Amino acid sequence: MRLRLDSDPLSLLPAGLPSVSTLREHQSLFPSARELLITVKARTPEEALALAEGIAADLVRRKDLVESTRWDTGFRESIADTVAWAWAQRAPSDLEVLERRLETGQIAQELAVCRERLATTLDPAELARLAYDPLGLLDMPGLAGMETLGRAQTDPFSSPDGTFRVVSVAPRDPSMPYREAAVWLGAIRRVVEEARLRVVGNPGGKAVRVAFTGYVAIMAETANGMERDLTSSVTLTLAVICLLFWATHRSLRPLAWLVVSLLLTFLITLALGSLVLGELNVISCGFASVMMGLVVDYSLVGYQEMRACPDRSLVQIRTAVMPGILWSAATTAGTFLSLHFGGLPGLSELGTLTAMGLVVGAIVTLFWFLPRVAGRNPKSLSNADGSELGETGIPGPVSRWLAVACTCVLMGLAVGVLTLKGWPRVEGASDPLMPRNSASQEAMEELRSELGRTHKTSWLLVRGADPESVHGRFAEAVPRLEEARLTGAVVGFQVPTVIWPFPAHARTNQATLGRLGGRADEFRSRLLEAGYGSNSLHLADSILQRWRRWSGSGEGIPTWPEGAFGRWVAPMTSARDRDGSWIGRGIVETPTTREGVPVLPSGVQIAGWENLGPELLARVVGRVRVLTAAIAIALTLCLWLAFRRWIEVVLGLGALALSFGLLLMVMSLTGATWNLLNLVAIPLILGTSVDSTIHVQLALRRHGGDLRAVWRSTGVALLLCAGANIAGFGSLAWSSNAGLASLDLVCAGGVVCVLVVVLLLLPAWWLVLHRTTEDLSPNPGSLAEVHDLAPNGCTPNGCTDDLTPKAKGLSPGPNPWAKTKDLSPPAPASTKDLSPGSKPSQLYGGWAWWIALQVARRIGRRPLAGMTRLGMRLYMAVRPDRLELVMENLRPVVGDEASRLRAIAKANGLGFAEKLVDLWRLEAGIRPRVRLGSEAGWKPFREAVASHDGVLLVTVHLGNWELGGPLLTDLGVRPLVLSAEEPDSGLTTLRAAARAHHGIDTLVVGSDPFAFVEVIRRLQEGGVVALLLDRPVGSGVETRFFGRPFRASPAAAELARATGARIFPMVVIRDAEGPVARALPEVVYDRSELAGRERRRDFTTRLLATFEEVIREHPDQWFHFVSVWKSGRSDDGVSGT
Amino acid sequence: MIRGFRNLAAGLGVGVLVVLGEGVPDPYEAILRSWLEASTHLNRFQAEFQQTRHLKALTQPLVSTGRVWFSAPDRFRWELGDPPQSVAVRSGDTLLILSPRLRRAESYSLGGNPTGPARDLMGLLDGAFPRSIEDWKGRFEITGVSTNQGMLRLDLRPRSPAARKLMPVLIVGLDAGTLGLRLTEMIMVDGSRIRSEFGTLRTNLPIPSELFSLEVDPAWKLTRNESPP
Questions:
Q1: I need a surface site. Which of A303, A617, A644, A896 has the fewest CB within 10 A?
Q2: pTM for this entry
Q3: What's the domain range around A1003?
């Protein structure tokens, strides 16, 4: 697969805007919009003319390259054709006036008047016209503008002084791709150079200058610039990254692997880009360097971790850094994906590619880069956290207040500069979408200047079913345009009303024209009698001859004028769409100083690059405002989640605000402006810079304000990462696209400003606001700390897998910080084991569950199951620790054979995906069909229910036990389900509501100390209560299961002792035909034997044993994603219930 | 071949002119300065003239009479025909062309550097009345000087290519003694010639200011032509 580059500037524009649609339509309908323009600037008009003629003549001979060439409108040589045709299109009343003027009795007087004007007129143009048109056939309103169609006062092919000329070239294949266009342009250049040498020789300097512009030239140049941008920015970024890495680590091997991993990321992203997008546009090709500058952070973090903890295994390192890297990739990718809301497709694609690159980069780093640099004995970091620095790095009050003074000075400076020099302007022009430092663009500017096109030029497009309707709409537009001209909204305009075909008029006029043409001899003799020479008769003769031919022969009046002018003007002013409708094209010039376009009648559209700017800008500004506000809210939330203290949230936001102030100051001082593209730098900088404020403040917390330690552990890493980011953005400062360059310059400038503020000022602010000694006490127990750049779980004493204070060597014994004022949020880590095996996945929460239910409600089971299985595969890939945990859980069930164990664990994961789908659908209100197993098993249950004995249904996490509830309601039973509290209260409520929907009551154990009173009451009244045995609420009771110590819920035994309820084990498993509910044999017991705690524990073991066989049959459906064999902290065996 | 030779000759000719222009003093500079000095003494003048138009399209020349008034620094009035069929009035930066018979008027702005029709008109009307050497030299170059029967003949070439498209040559005849204007002859691009022979020049007589009035009868059709900036 080969990635294509889309060099068409139109691809950068949003399709939804009316002005963009009109411009696209114009470009596709009018072939002249895709022509090559060759400009010639010579010393004299004669030289310019000769060279233009020479070039045109040489090129037109190259039929393999060129369809046609044009260096002149051809009006003078085909004036008779044009005027004869134009009269035919006039209203019949106009022709009647002409015929009356030329009546036999009238013509003598007409000629006398003409002679008198010839003798006395002071107007050179009138003098020239009357001398060669004594019959006044050229005296037609609007005809004067025909020669200079498209421009009010100038020739479209020549400057007023004639020293500048234009040759337009229609390519043989106007839709050739950019590579072919570049080759084609090269061939054209050679032909032109030969013509130049032949015609004007080889004058030195810039005496005779030939340049190339127009669509083909711009497209070829843009595409070449894109290729150059892509390679040069990648090379430059890589070079800077290498330098930074070398300066920091001085190690060649990891550097080499780093470069290879970045290139691999680049290539994979490029391949994915070609799959997803198909082609890169001029803006999106800038993704490579930006992505590399960001992705390298992940490698640096991983490598830093290895250096800090050289004794840890690859899996341990990866497990430690994976959450940080994946979250960072996800949030940064999210920020770049937000460019989709920026309103410009070019930026959207840049955002998509960069986001894809970030995700790919994170995966490549974790699973390709780290294995390659692992075990290479990276040089370990000494004093990584600064704790061995000896002398404290906490600055004194003077230094703190000095930094605060610097802050005030900087703020004052920013305010002063912005007050005096003003805010950076917002430019409304669409120039940022165009190439810069471009020879073809310069040639276009010169062309505009030389031809006097100093105003904004746009095309007027009118569509109609036939030429007459188009003509009518143009005629309606004229008064509006004239009005706009008088108010200054329009400088000039030209609509093709005189040279527009009007077949209905032509048919009517045919007879009149025939009569006039038939009088040619009479006119000739009258003119000669009046003293006119034979050369004054030539034009009239030619016109009359055409009229006679059209009326006399069957060919009729042609649709367009014959001759060179007709061939030029027809495609310039008209086009036919696929549906046969007609499109007319006029031109309007608006002042450069005014924005917007004049109001025109419906049906008249304006197309032009120069008028796109304001509309695009309005769209982008609106989107950027919303985007920035959304990102600002999200950032505030992020900061809150990270710190849980408003003071630090405010400090983080303050740092970002000051950084932006400095950026605006620099922009104001350098004269930089905001434009269509670089406006989106605002959300980009916010999204990519907020983590710096988090890292620094967390490091300050961790090191108790010791700046030296903060610098060594976090500052250097931030500097390195920021350097790479700046390199990534900055390498596009020389991009061939002006907008991309400005966007990346602003981003790089923003990163620099953020870095300055965050590293130099933010620590001082933090210290000023945490002045007391208690405030500055190091806080090792913060949950937020685990997300810091500092190696996770690493201390000077070594590295552990466990992030609890205890594991970090801060226990046993009283917490040394217990008497200090803890700055961190309430730390769950202080009481709970945070290892993956001790807690459920973070995905298991209220919001995620709610979204899953919404999805399950809307799409079918099969696609949902496919998606869920895919998600589970990905989850197992990125969380191998979870897979290993499942394997450990299953080991006593299936044995120690590793391959079998792994296969069953994977099948277990996929089976859980299936279970989830059924459960979501059930809770979304869609009941799956559940079969009842052997009736023999269910008969005792039915009898027990019928006799109101009180039934305790026990089950384990096997199959889809939740589907049993609705089955019971089908059997006429309203069960009460005992449930543990879910990870969040919202989820608990959500799930209870779903059960209630199916007629199932829920009792959350643990939240209500009197809950079991209700359970006992329900059983005593003959109700049915269902509970799970193999996951205790609280510490549970230690039993044996599969011959291993196992903590189980003693609830069933306790309830049996309290109520004497009958106990039926039950499972709902999935076989080839779907879910099936199986009732296992009733567990018969003697209530009096359950009096002691030990007896109840044995009874629980007995209950569990009833499930061992069915679990062995279906190990892939025994779902536990937390460690089941590892006991809780309590060893006392006391039931938590 | 012939075309190539012509181009070569033209190129050589241009080269010679460039060399002369850059390295050698303009041989006509003294004449030009004298003429300018004589003209600038004339703060006001009026004259009658006879204009003969030898047009290629007509077998016979067209003859008409006219009058001209001038008042320094920038006001003039030309009338052609008797009664006047065409009138040109300049006052300040406005040039007004009136066609009384057609009840039509056209107004041109001469502000800045006039282009297009305004420039062409000015070339026809004031080429023979230099006021500033720089301005005049910017518009014309002297290609030949000769004397015959007490008349100094200056062959002028408009510098503007656009003006040359209309009028490649302008001949100015001056009194060899006083350097007063005796005739102008415009050679048009098709070979037609417009020759104006001036009668007695009456200088520094009072001229009624209404002659330079730009007022247009409201009943006339007035077209305004703004010169592009």
A1: A896
A2: 0.57
A3: 931-1117
